[in-house]
Each structure stands twice: as C-alpha cells, then as structure tokens.
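User: Working on a comparison across species. This one is FLYWCH-type domain-containing protein from Plutella xylostella. Can you predict its structure so I can line it up against the others?
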Amino acid sequence: MGGFRYLKARGTAAWVRWRCFKKDHGCGAAVKTIDGEIVSMIGEHNHAEHTFS
Ligand SMILES: [Zn+2]
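Assistant: Here's the predicted structure for FLYWCH-type domain-containing protein from Plutella xylostella:
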C-alpha cells in the first residue's frame, strides 16, 4: 500500500476501511479496499512515508 502503513479500522466481507498507522499522531488519512485493492482514499497524510525494513 504505497509507502504508508495502515491499521484495519472496520469493514465487511466486501470491503475494509483502513486508518493510517499514525492516526494517533493526528494523521487523518484512510483508505478503503475491496478485494485488497484500494478503491478510495480519504484525507491526506500529515507526515512522510514510512520506511520498511
Ligand atoms: Zn498517515
């Protein structure tokens, strides 16, 4: 999912809404996925992309 990390917020068998991993730090970005593909993005991140090791 790009360079951002998300936490599962809620969803159904058909779709899942994910909140940004940094939501507790004021980031309001979220995405909605259907079958693992992002179908909509909500808000903007207030930080740089995460780096993965
Ligand atoms: Zn974010």
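For your comparison, note: The chain has no helices and four strands.

User: Helpful, thanks.
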